[in-house]
Write a structure and sequence with these properties.
The complex is a heterodimer of chains A (254) and B (735). Chain A has one domain: Class I glutamine amidotransferase (GATase) domain (Rossmann fold, 3-Layer(aba) Sandwich). Chain A is built from five helices and eleven strands, in the order E-H-E-E-H-E-H-E-E-E-E-H-E-E-E-H. About 5% of the residues of chain A have low confidence. Chain A is 22% helix and 23% strand. In chain A, the strands form two sheets. Chain A has a nine-stranded mixed sheet, sandwiched between helices. In chain A, helix 2 links the parallel strand 3 and strand 4. By secondary structure, chain B is of the alpha+beta class. Among the domains of chain B are: 218 residues, PurM-like C-terminal domain (Phosphoribosyl-aminoimidazole Synthetase, Chain A, domain 2); 174 residues, PurM-like C-terminal domain (Phosphoribosyl-aminoimidazole Synthetase, Chain A, domain 2, Alpha-Beta Complex). Chain B has a seven-stranded mixed sheet, with helices on both faces. In chain B, helix 7 packs parallel to helix 8 and helix 23 crosses helix 26. The chains are: A alpha/beta (254), B alpha+beta (735). The interface between A and B is large, with 37 and 46 residues.
Chain lengths: 254, 735
């Protein structure tokens, strides 16, 4: 069984230099709750090296990939992600991303990335104004990113969502840009991969479920890949996203 | 000090009880002391009317580590060095006044009860009762309650995996909101709420104390009320973010040896937290109210002691570790203040600076009078149970389709997916069976085991026959767990009744509890914690007697769990258990109410058969004989078959039916002890042999096939038609 509490800072292990494993850092803000699930998926399922990163840390140099997990950072008061983006760790995340390293924001993490300007657009309250927790199907739109390198274009992933504010919005020019630069990575679709209004669970523009920045090293997605990590839980499709990250970064390092 | 009747009314103490306080104390209590007595002698904290009855409950078993009343929640050992901690609690009155915050803080309160003990909360459930949803006020309450549960629970990152929603006239203006929480801990990390060790420190952590929630325990939860809006200030406002920080910080603290105990602040605030933990630890306490951080100026000691501001914890800190504990809370950005210390004199002493404002022996505060009464059955209950079947016309086969669709769309039967999709039910990466089945299943990481959870309680049965209603509440909860492949382990119960000072309500309570107690003994499932909510009346009208049973069971091998939906074309479908038609089984049924507008008759159950059925079904699942199992409950056989079809997205075709007796009873009667299972044809003989050996009826009903539900010559509907009624039955009220 995984630990019932967060590891305390003094229990963090030194960085791993063998390069057989990647080192993931999972940022913990006050109010974050997907941190433990991400830890489980990356460590227990995929066997990678992973640590929690307290929101006050400013040095991320020991990590290969930073995960901004889901939750309600700072209670989502004011606006989801609006307070978290001012956390000390976020300046370090910006620098980390600027150096071209991989950053993945899931759910609340996506919201924080948009608030901090690392990703364009915004996530508004779901069009039906309710919280929504359900399975969704995502069609892979761009397989040429570090997060999708082990996937095929058009492949469909079964991954659940869980959010109040997941309706992706951007102005027309930004949307055009996103499409032109192939920054849209996942779209909500039917199990057969058809992008339809009925398969859109929250009213996101163009059925957008996940996007990257222009350089493709920062991904934000509303669905929770860490929850789709075992067949027993209904799907293990989320693992392919983590495996893609591992393959891309280890490939680069070689 | 002469006290007026108004003062006593405001804290829900009777004249007699006041005299008792004066006699035991040897003097008149002052205002603060009287407030403390009012809170701790309230029904909510003191169980004056229910304690004598609750003694019947069976709660001693080797695996039970903490039994009812000993701590904030019950604890059961599940092996592998792990324990589960669980409790259910009502937040009915606050939710009637302010549904969103009332329900939200209900979740907050029950979650604190769990992590107070050092256990990580891993699942929530809610048992809800509303008036008819055709009424806009009831829809407003429904919407507010569901929204409040979602807002609070989702923010905490605890999956909400199930519960029930039931509506009936009697809950108009008096909805029931019962919140359940399950936690898991390593056995060595369990924390008790015992204040002991002279000189140890009382540390208050979390939110500042405000004037919100004064008289919650005595005013709201312990008397009936007619003008609900006047008490709005007695409802608290929740801050789930703060609670989330408290969870993480307190669980971290639980792994240290810096503290002797933890206690959350719930009903009656500081008063009950301090006094109850001191009573458990046989200590005394000395508190200075000036040290309590406040939200507003000018609060009196009375207000500080009785405030029910949410998200506060009392930590009993070993005196040498004050700095370490404070640093831990600082890291989580939580405020912590030392407000007093443990003494050895057994007295609750409250000071305002140097001035002593209350000084009462703790033993007096925690020993309210216990009321026992002898009551006969009210005369109207015979009339109610007496059902003359010939006055109710049986249905003709050609009406069966329409009635089945009507029942599937009835809010008590229709799918609750529009509610549970608003709750995060997957966070934690443990939920194997999502809400919408007979029971939710959560695996336990690092082991092969899984936990199965359900809540149950058919109040209509309890109204018609309180004793058998109590029996069925427990039996059905166990049956739901068994359908998932779990062995029932323990119960936490929430007993919702009207005003116990009325004879008929006391009778209902006594009978329900007796029925539950007997079934718990019979099925060997101990009750390990619970809550009593009385005075659920508005304008003199009581709710149905509504015991809610939340039960948790263990599946030894999670791979062998079972669900309700049909799995494969060609599988045989069997009815296990009570296979003969019983005409009187339409008594108390959803069918009788929805189609004939009648609430009459009496439920019936044969506990011996029930026990054999549950053993048989469990064995069949363990041996991998059956592929699906679904409890046959509200709406009867036809509804259960339709649900198994819809959940599996597969049709069903019956063999030639040979129904004896009434058709409506055969299709929609609610005879107990029935489970619908499916089995592959090659294993059918194994099922029949097992059932025969265990003396359980096994009737082969038909075959899983196609995309229609067909009961030859009677019912023939497509899955589409069935699905439209069942999936949309509840949402139709809100469009």
């Amino acid at each position: 069984m995984t630990s019932l509490t967060h590891a305390r800072p003094e229990q963090y292990r030194p960085p791993h230099h063998g390069r057989t494993q990647m080192r993931f850092g999972i940022v913990v803000f006050p109010g974050t709750w997907s941190d433990r699930d991400c830890y489980y998926a990356i460590k227990d399922i995929l066997g990678q090296d992973v640590s929690y990163v307290w929101h006050k840390e400013t040095d991320l140099s020991q990590y290969d990939c930073i995960v901004l997990p889901g939750g309600f950072s700072y209670g989502d008061y004011l606006r989801p992600g609006a307070i978290a983006r001012f956390s000390p760790v976020m300046a370090a995340v910006e620098e980390f991303a600027f150096r071209g390293k991989a950053v993945i924001g899931i759910c609340n993490g996506f919201q924080i990335l948009c608030e901090s300007g690392l990703l364009p657009g915004a996530l508004l309250r779901n069009d039906h104004l309710e919280y929504r927790c359900q399975w969704t199907h995502l069609r892979v739109e761009n397989e040429l990113t570090p997060f999708t390198s082990s996937l095929q274009k058009g492949q469909v992933l079964k991954i659940p969502i869980s959010h109040y504010d997941g309706r992706y919005y951007a102005d027309e020019a930004t949307l055009k840009d996103l499409e032109a630069n192939k920054q849209i990575v996942f779209r909500y679709a039917t199990p057969n991969g058809k992008v339809t209004p009925a398969s859109n669970p929250n009213g996101s523009l163009n059925n957008i479920a996940g996007i990257t920045n222009r350089q493709k090293n920062v991904l934000g997605m509303m669905p929770h890949p860490e929850r789709a990590c075992e067949p027993l839980l209904g799907s293990s499709d989320g693992n392919i996203i983590w495996e893609s990250i591992i393959a891309s970064i280890q490939g680069n390092a070689r | 000090m002469p006290v007026s009747k108004e003062t006593l009314d405001s804290i829900a103490l009777s004249e007699k009880e006041y005299q008792l306080i004066v006699k035991r104390l040897g003097r008149e209590p002052n205002e603060v002391e009287l407030g403390m007595f009012g809170a701790l002698w309230s029904e909510h904290c003191g169980y004056k009317h229910s304690k004598a009855l609750l003694k019947q409950f069976f709660s001693r078993a080797r695996r039970v580590l903490v039994a009812p009343g000993e701590e904030n929640a019950g604890v059961v050992d599940i092996g592998d060095g792990l324990v589960i901690v669980m409790k259910i609690e009502s937040h009915n009155h606050p939710s009637a006044i302010e549904p969103f915050q009332g329900a939200a803080t209900g979740v907050g309160g029950i979650v604190r009860d769990i992590f107070t003990m050092g256990a990580r909360p891993i699942a929530l459930m809610n048992s809800l009762r509303f008036g008819p949803l055709s009424n806009p006020r009831n829809r407003y309450l429904f919407h507010g309650v569901v929204g409040g549960i979602a807002a609070y629970g989702n923010c905490l990152g605890i999956p909400n995996v199930g519960g029930e929603i039931f509506s009936a006239d009697c809950y108009s203006d008096n909805p029931l909101v019962n919140a359940f929480c399950l936690g898991i801990a390593r056995r060595e990390n369990l924390v008790r709420s015992r204040a002991h060790g002279e000189g140890n420190l009382l540390m208050l952590v979390g939110a500042d104390t405000g004037r919100d929630g004064l008289h919650g325990a005595s005013g709201l939860a312990s008397r009936t009320f007619d003008e609900d809006t006047e008490l709005r200030s007695a409802v608290q406002v929740g801050n789930p973010f703060l609670e989330k920080l408290l969870i993480e910080a307190c669980l971290e603290l639980a792994t240290t040896d810096w503290i002797v105990g933890m206690q959350d602040l719930g009903a009656a605030g500081l008063t009950s937290a301090c006094v109850e933990s001191a009573a458990r630890g046989n200590g005394g306490i000395d508190i200075d109210v000036l040290k309590v951080p406040r939200r507003e100026k000018g609060m009196t000691p009375y207000e500080v002691m009785l405030s029910e501001s949410q998200e506060r914890m009392l930590i009993i800190v070993k005196k040498e570790y004050e700095a370490q504990v404070k640093a831990l809370f600082d890291r989580w950005e939580l405020r912590s203040d030392i407000i007093g210390r443990i003494t050895g004199d057994g007295i609750a002493r409250v000071r305002e600076g140097e001035k002593v404002v209350a000084e009462v022996p703790i033993g007096l505060l925690t020993s309210p009078p216990i009321y026992r009464r002898r009551i006969k059955a009210p005369p109207w209950i015979d009339e109610l149970q007496n059902i003359s079947l010939h006055s109710i016309p049986d249905i003709s086969p050609r009406k069966a389709n329409r009635i089945l669709l009507t029942l599937l769309a009835s809010p008590n039967i229709a799918s609750k997916h529009s509610v549970y999709r608003q709750y995060d039910h997957q966070v934690g990466n443990n939920t194997v069976v999502l809400p919408g089945n007979d029971a939710a299943v959560l695996r336990i990481k690092g082991t092969k085991k899984a936990l199965s959870l359900t809540t149950d309680g058919n109040a209509r049965y309890c109204y018609l026959n309180p004793y058998l209603g109590g029996v069925i509440a427990v039996a059905e909860a166990a049956r739901n767990l068994v359908c998932s492949g779990a062995r029932p382990l323990a119960i936490t119960d929430c007993l919702n009744f009207g005003n116990p000072e009325k004879d008929e309500v006391y009778y209902q309570m006594k009978e329900c509890i007796a029925g539950m107690a007997r079934t718990c003994r019979e099925l060997r499932v101990p009750i390990i914690s619970g809550n009593v909510s009385l005075y659920n009346e508005t304008r003199g009208r009581a709710i149905y007697p509504t015991p809610v049973v939340a039960m948790v069971g263990v599946i030894e091998d999670v791979e062998k769990h079972c669900t309700a939906g049909f799995k494969h074309e060609g599988d045989y479908v069997y009815l296990l258990g009570c296979t003969q038609a019983i005409d009187t089984s339409i008594g108390g049924s959803e069918y009788l109410q929805v189609v004939h507008g009648m609430i009459k008759g009496s439920p019936y159950i044969d506990l011996k058969l029930e026990k054999r059925l549950q053993n048989c079904c469990l064995e069949a699942i363990r041996r991998g004989i059956i592929k699906s199992a679904h409890d046959c409950s509200e709406g009867g056989l036809a509804v259960a078959l339709a649900e198994s079809c819809l959940l599996g997205n597969l049709g069903f075709t019956s063999f030639e039916p040979d129904f004896e007796g009434r058709l409506d009873a055969a299709l929609f009667g609610e005879a107990q002890s029935r489970i619908i299972v499916s089995v592959s044809p090659e294993h059918a003989w194994r099922l029949e042999k097992l059932a025969d050996r265990m003396e359980v009826g096994a009737l082969r009903l038909g075959v899983v096939s196609g995309s229609r539900l067909t009961i030859k010559g009677i019912v023939d509907l497509s899955l589409r038609e069935l699905g439209k009624a069942w999936w949309n039955g509840l949402t139709n009220f809100f469009d």
